[in-house]
Amino acid sequence: MSDIVLKVENVSKQYRLGYVGTQSLKDDLIRRWHKIRGLDDPFLKIGEKNERTKKSNSDYVWALRDLNFDVREGEVLGIIGKNGAGKSTLLKLLSKVTGPTTGKIKVSGRIASLLEVGTGFHPELTGKENIFLNGAILGMTKKEIKNKYDEIVDFSGVERYLDTPVKRYSSGMYVRLAFAVAAHLDPEILIVDEVLAVGDAEFQKKAIGKMQDISKESGRTVLFVSHNMGSIKNISTRGLLMKHGGIEMMGNIDDVLDCYLKSEENVEQKKAGNIVDRSGSQSVTFNELTFETGRKGVADTIFTGDDMILNFKLKVTDKSVKKINIGFSIHNAWGDRLCVLYSGYQGVFYDANEEYLHIKCQLNHLDFSPGSYTVIGRIEANGLEADWPKESIGTFNVIMGDFYNTGSLGFVSERVPVLVKGEWA
Predict the structure, then answer these.
(1) Is the distance from CB of 178 to CB of 190 less than 8 angstroms?
(2) Which of 16, 129, 170, 250 is the most exposed place for a label (fewest CB within 10 A)?
């Protein structure tokens, strides 16, 4: 279709570990001869999928394998996955830094890439000179670059150092100027890797806002790789989840994030029943705690502003106990107790009529700031202590979502324990 600006067809990328090429002139000539004749590469029949945590039995590895997808004009595609999933390799192929081993990549329009600190910059040239160099590489005329020059300088925030060779820039200054150039020289496709994480919170906010403007106002396409799920969620229209060099899922960004956050590799719920050090009569004990939201299902990662459900599984050893009062407190990474809640506070008690009790507690519009949290539990039965584990019965993570319903992320320090909304006049 005419609105498809990027098409990836059966793309794979193979590397030989520790070597460039086949490490043999004979083998390189054989590979070249097969390519000229339109035949398959004879060395592609070997190789293992890319699993960084497992020992390989082969010198060949498939960094990418059989990728097929389209990207349409004006889309923001968020690319996520574990380290080693193939995200950066994919972006290098799309940016033509390297070529695919097999398959085709069809691109309509100019591509501007920011894959690592200093991409496309010459360290001996000044910041000003690199602006014009980068623009020329992208196919811009000198007049076009001059028209954008003031915007680039203002956005980068490094005006004072424009006459200084960029080799003397800090990594943060490098990224500021590189992103400013890439974003303002009107590429049809902007490709950004995790490099933005080098910048400070203020710059990240500006960069994310700029990528949104590029897509929404200019109708241009953005491919964005990040481990910050909040940023991915906030600016992406579609998501691509990669695993072991292949595509695990592609579709609506919320669905893709749900799949990633719920995957077995990312969810490690604690078995509360394994805790040994605990006090109380043990007539009713914590057996398990899991977390979920109505939107994502079971997951240990929650967005700010989501409703969170705590699913308690209690084991009953004395079915005669009555008036069970279940309570918990939530603590941040520094050990600060942020809240305490007992079912009894709200006049809710339970009877031990089965071997296992399943109890839910929903916290509406979670207002914790991004970070890691632990849950300490306590159970009373008939007014007496039944179970009090001496360590946490579960952990969950919070990442920044659109808590303020503004369409953009707020950047909040993890040391700020809770978020609040105000009515301003």
Answers:
(1) no
(2) 170
Backbone angles phi, psi at 155, to 5 degrees: -70, -40
CA of 333: how far to CAs of 106, 307, 328, 375, in Å? 47, 21, 16, 11
Tell me if 247 sits within 8 A of 86, measured CB to CB. Answer: no
Q: Which residue has the higher pLDDT, 185 or 152?
A: 152
β-bridge partners, 381: 324, 384
Per-chain mean pLDDT for the chain: 81
CA distance 321 to 381: 6
In angstroms, rounded to a whole number, what is the distance separating the alpha carbons of residues 153 and 146?
11
Of residues 403 and 175, the one with the higher pLDDT is 175
Which residue ranges form the domains of the chain, and what is each CATH number? 68-262 (3.40.50.300), 272-399 (2.70.50.60)
Instruction: Look at residue 13 and give its three-state secondary structure.
Output: strand
Nearest Cα residue to 222 out of 214, 232, 230 = 214
What pLDDT band is residue 42 in, cutting at 50, 70 and 90? low
Distance of alpha carbon 344 from alpha carbon 150, whole angstroms = 63
* Encoded tokens for 189: 């496709």
> DSSP class of residue 321?
-
Burial of 208 (C-beta count, 10 Å sphere; 0-12/13-18/19+): buried
Q: How far is CA 358 from the centre of its chain?
A: 32
Tens digit of each residue's pLDDT (9 = 90 or more) over 231-269: 787 788 899 999 888 999 999 988 888 788 766 444 455
